[in-house]
Please model this.
Amino acid sequence: MSRKTILAGNWKMFKTSAEARQFFSQLLPLITPLKPDREVALGVPFPSLEAAAAAVADSPVAIGAQDIFWEDQGAFTGEVSGPMIRAAGATAVIIGHSERRQLFGETGQWVNQKLRAALRAGLAPIVCLGETRAERESGQTFEVLGRQLAEGLAGFAANELAPLVLAYEPVWAIGTGLTATPEQAQETHAAIRQWLGRHLGPALAADLRILYGGSVKPDNVARLMSQPDLDGALVGGASLEAAAFARIVNFDD
Ligand code: PEP
Model:
């Protein structure tokens, strides 16, 4: 079993093209040469995709979008398709982030359609899932995650999902400074992997990378990543500042 660690950032609605260029001019020297056991990706706003992709050309950093629409083109005002994201130079896309589910009414069915569109466009999908504080406190975490997995991955065969990456992001830990303990995260990642094994087979369950997200910072990343079922991190706030994100990327394993 060798799952390469992914350190992924999610800039959310921050950074213009010029700010993206400046960020990468600071980040790249700090993370190069990249340790061979890891990959780096940044999820950037649509208007900054092209500048970000140009800035990381010839580097090991991948650029991703933060959302995708499920049709390739058409009368869908305001939406952005997989082929458009690819043409801007991105190779990945975040799907189903809890902010999209909570603030914009994104459903499990939409996540499913967006996942299909991402795979069709040749984008590596990072599908997010996670429970709210109320759901964890009432003992519904595994039920909620099982439902999100069932909806998001409905209709896919295991061999179609090879490029998929999952991100477990407890909603109560996003942007709050509260982090799941390494043990809490490990227990949940192991449960997600068991679900994958039951529904999509042991090979996919063993190979699929599951990132943890929720207040990952330079000083807690190493302990989280030491857990066997945590295969990387999806980082919000701490991905906005090059020096902090570089410390996350360069964590000692
Ligand atoms: C996120 O937005 O995916 C996230 C995990 O944010 P933060 O690291 O700021 O909690």
Q: What stands out?
A: The chain is about 40% helix and 15% strand. The chain has a mean pLDDT of 97.
